[in-house]
Specification:
about 25% strand; 22 strands; 6-stranded antiparallel β-sheet
Length: about 525
């Protein structure tokens, strides 16, 4: 795989860069002065646990307030220094960021290595008219560092910087008179898909855990509270009914939290194709975010259908682009091209982004009887392991009667899972696009441009060799970086790889023709 570009750094007294170009007269620019309000306050909030500890430790000597003020003063000074020592400029074909006081650091990144420009704003930023600009180069996204993050630019300065970073002579010019094209816009009614993402589970359990922690620290026993005691008695009298009520209440809370989270994250979601050859994805209600993806960095798209979302005919669309890491999460990593939405809309947007509907609608080739058997063999083996473990435990310790009954009832469920996994399995080669589909709990249809494939991995396990199957993995510098075609016949895997990227696999193929000698 190709190596990712790394920002060039210069620490105090140590120059690890090549000889710099001739001096440039472009002036260095500072962050917006209004950041002098945000940065110190943020440092105080970040150090709140430490300040609380200082107050508690100083309470024994009567100087807790003094020490607390001193700690807050240090936090404010640190915030002021961060603003004062951070400057940036775009000069000599590079974006340059300089920061630090004791350890001076300069980050230089050539403009042709800029993959994305991400503009976001927290509620505090929006009140003051500020934004945070993150420049994606692929390597910085992978390491999750903030080397190329400018926190505290005005909205106008952020837009100007984005234009400077993405204005390059190698970009495709739009036809004369061409304007912005809105590819997708999410109406508020799409919030009905929020409960089927189960994202609210995390929120509900975090809140419940926090509440339980507070009650524990306050030494309050919830069972001694009147309403809780009455509810506990009802559950004890009718355990199945009580469990059903608790489950219903939990699901209602999760659905409400998921819907609220959907509205907060994806309010006003829109995808726009700009005349300069880029896709701009904007969203957010309280905190806003705008991500710009160069279309020349786009290597394909992924149609994602989680099981619950699939039941209501919903889907998500994710970009496969260099500089954007799906592993961080589509929402956080900036790869989301469409939030949970009607599947028909996701298909339409995918066709618009790829500029062709063929890879999205093309029928997929099935993987044959051997792959079908492997789907059932895997899930039935897992089911048998569970049954054997339960039987072994029942010999050692008494188990509730419902455990073995549940294991028997589980058999049709795992069989349905195997059937659905095989139904999702398939592949196709549509022009210069490799299409592959797999998964059941999360069904993914990947449409990857052959131009983005930099290598092939052909793997065969012991059982795959017995069945004449193989897994063909397309490696790329974009997205998840590895996209498999699972359990395909060996000759078909070789054919797809050779046709998708001619001459890449040819040196490793052995001809079956007899040697003339």
């Amino acid at each position: 795989m190709s190596s990712q570009p790394q920002p060039q750094r210069q620490a105090a007294g140590v120059d690890e860069r090549p000889a710099p170009p001739a001096a440039d007269a472009t002036p260095w620019r500072r962050l917006d002065p209004k950041m002098l309000v945000v940065q110190p306050l943020r440092e105080v909030i970040r150090l709140l646990p430490l300040l609380a500890g200082i107050l508690l430790a100083g309470s024994t000597t009567g100087r807790g307030g003094l020490w607390g003020l001193a700690g807050a003063g240090v936090a404010i000074v640190v915030g002021l220094l961060r603003w004062y020592t951070t400057t940036y400029r775009v000069a000599a074909g590079q974006v340059q960021v300089r920061r630090g006081l004791l350890r001076r650091e300069t980050i230089n990144v050539p403009l042709d290595r800029v993959r994305t420009v991400d503009i976001s704003a927290s509620p505090m930023h929006r009140i003051l008219g500020l934004t945070r600009v993150t420049v994606g180069t692929g390597q910085s996204d992978l390491k999750r560092d903030s080397a190329l993050r400018l926190d505290g630019l005005s909205a106008a300065d952020a837009e100007r910087l984005r234009a400077e970073l993405l204005r390059r002579p190698d970009r495709v010019a739009a036809p004369s008179g061409a304007g912005e094209e809105v590819l997708a816009f999410a109406p508020p009614s799409w919030a009905r898909y929020g409960p089927f993402t189960l994202s609210g589970f995390v929120t509900v359990f975090v809140v419940l855990g926090f509440a339980w922690r507070i009650l524990s620290e306050a030494r309050i026993d919830p069972r001694r509270l009147g309403p809780v005691t009455a509810g506990y008695r009802d559950v004890a009298a009718a355990p199945w009914l009580g469990a059903a009520v608790i489950l219903a209440v939990l699901l209602a809370l999760v659905a409400a939290a998921s819907t609220i989270g959907y509205l907060l994250a994806f309010w006003g979601f829109r995808v726009v194709r700009s005349p300069d050859g880029s896709l701009q994805v904007a969203r957010g209600l309280i905190s806003t975010r705008s991500t710009t993806i160069e279309e020349r960095r786009l290597r394909g798209a992924e149609l994602s259908e989680p099981l619950l979302l699939r039941l209501v005919r919903g889907a998500r669309l994710i970009a496969i682009a260099t500089g954007l890491r799906v592993g961080r999460g589509a929402e956080r990593g900036g790869t989301l091209l469409l939030p949970p939405a009607p599947r028909e809309e996701a298909v339409r947007v995918a066709a618009a982004v790829l500029r062709t509907a063929e890879p999205v609608a093309a029928p997929l080739a099935r993987h044959g009887a051997a792959a079908h058997r492997r789907r059932y063999t895997r899930v039935l083996t897992a089911w048998l392991v569970i049954v054997v473990v339960l039987l072994a435990l029942s010999r050692l310790t008494p188990l509730p009667d419902w455990t073995l009954v549940a294991s028997v009832v589980l058999l049709p469920a795992v069989a349905a899972l195997a059937f659905d996994r095989y139904r999702s399995l398939g592949h196709a080669l549509v022009g210069r696009v490799v299409v592959t589909s797999r998964g059941s709990l999360v069904r993914r249809r990947v449409m990857l441009a052959s131009d983005g494939i930099i290598g092939w991995n052909l793997t065969r396990s012991f059982f795959q060799r017995r069945s004449g199957l193989a897994t063909l993995v397309a490696t790329t510098a974009a997205g998840r970086q590895a996209y498999p075609v699972q359990d395909v016949a060996l000759d078909e895997a070789v054919r797809v790889a050779d046709r998708a990227v001619p001459d890449l696999l040819a040196p490793f193929l052995v001809s079956e023709e007899p040697d003339p000698a």
